[in-house]
Amino acid sequence: MKLVLLSGGSGKRLWPLSNDSRSKQFLKVLENKDGQLESMVQRVWGQLKSVGLADSAVIATSKAQLDMMQSQLGNEAPLILEPERRDTFPAIALATVYLYSAKGVVMDEVIAILPVDPYVEDRFFRRVQDLEDVLVSSGANLALIGVTPTYPSSRYGYIIPETDQIGNSVANVSHFKEKPSEEQAKELMNQQALWNCGVFAFKLGYLLSLLTEKGFPIQYEELLEQYKKLPKISFDYEVVEKANHIVVLPYNGYWKDLGTWNTLTEEMATEVIGKGIISDDSVNTHLINELDIPVTVLGLSNVVVAASPDGILVTEKNSSPRIKELVADFDQRPMYEERRWGWYRVLDYTRFAEGCEVLTKRIGISAGKNLSYQLHFKRSEVWTIISGEGEFALNGEICLVKSGDVLRIPAGAKHAIKAITDLQFIEVQTGSELIEEDIVRLYITWDEVEAHCQASKLSHREIAASRE
């Protein structure tokens, strides 16, 4: 069996900590067994390794999440990159075709799909392994896992088994009900309906035949080229609701979707993350602060206070799911991102009437990591090193830099930097279009940079002095 983990979403439900680049699965707010903070994706990947499934797993994600994924999991997790976000059907189709044409997986292989961020016990993933036998023995098109409900939730979808099979370990699926009212949920529980946790399996050949019927290629490179032509629709609507034979495997154990602030804070090991204080008379209140200034919460119960460079949220816990509706139209660049080399935080952005833009960032590069050798046509940059030491490449020369150095990079200049120790600098960009598209990456690794540049034993200051 092969596992495909889906990592997508725009990150609006856990605003302001999550954004288009840092979705909920990347927030480091959970505590691992060593007492260190980890994200949902780190937790799930660790669980897959503990039950022996990591070697069979790939993660389908968008280009926008590539650096974040590599920052948190390193290079040990195989990634399938979607050219753009187009919902779950295109993502699953691309992953399945990749396994077939790029990895040589055979038609009879069982493919299991699951979200990258469920909050579950390790035994949940052992239940996922049972899907293979269930699919083969039942002859079904699809095999799902359904969670036994613990309360009549109106936030989850429900899987309703056929009435004559209620109580069996595996049942045929009668129909589905998406997010019912609480009263409807109570009735569904009486019918022994199960929560739909988004985990299902099919034989690889089943989905490939569907793609062929729809006129799409089943070779990976060809499907990549036609990715925009795939319908922007969920797998549930495009495949599940049209399948002839679906079975469901019950799971009677702990499962939770940590997709809103009220559910996420229930699993946090501490009430305060970051600089801040909550008064003793504030009951069931959580503070998550990513800013460098302290936040104080006084006399507020059942509240979440979340602060990041993207904004500040103060909400009652029961009202927190509504945040997605309120911020849906916010149009601003992400103010904080994790990258494969470290992180950056936007300190200021100003657009002047005459069209000039100025963007100021604080950038951190981990020791041994580097920015790519690149150039820009529409902006110049000034870097001020504030801590650490590194090697700086500029137009074919490499020199040593350290705290206090000011590096001027004109438009069109080829440049890169590598951290010898953990390195931080302030970057001020000035130009007409401060966008990602104005980056031309020439070399990615530092070995490539060194191979094409002339190393100098002089420091940045000595080189500057010799040119005066």
UniProtKB/TrEMBL annotation:
Transmembrane segments: none
Record-linked SUPFAM superfamilies: Nucleotide-diphospho-sugar transferases, RmlC-like cupins
InterPro entries: Man6P_isomerase-2_C (IPR001538), Mannose-6P_isomerase_type2 (IPR051161), NTP_transferase_dom (IPR005835), Nucleotide-diphossugar_trans (IPR029044), RmlC-like_jellyroll (IPR014710), RmlC_Cupin_sf (IPR011051)
Domain Mannose-6-phosphate isomerase type II C-terminal span(s) in chain numbering: 339-442
Pfam families: MannoseP_isomer, NTP_transferase
Nucleotidyl transferase domain ranges (all copies): 4-269
Highest taxon above the source species: Bacteria
Protein name: Sugar phosphate nucleotidyltransferase
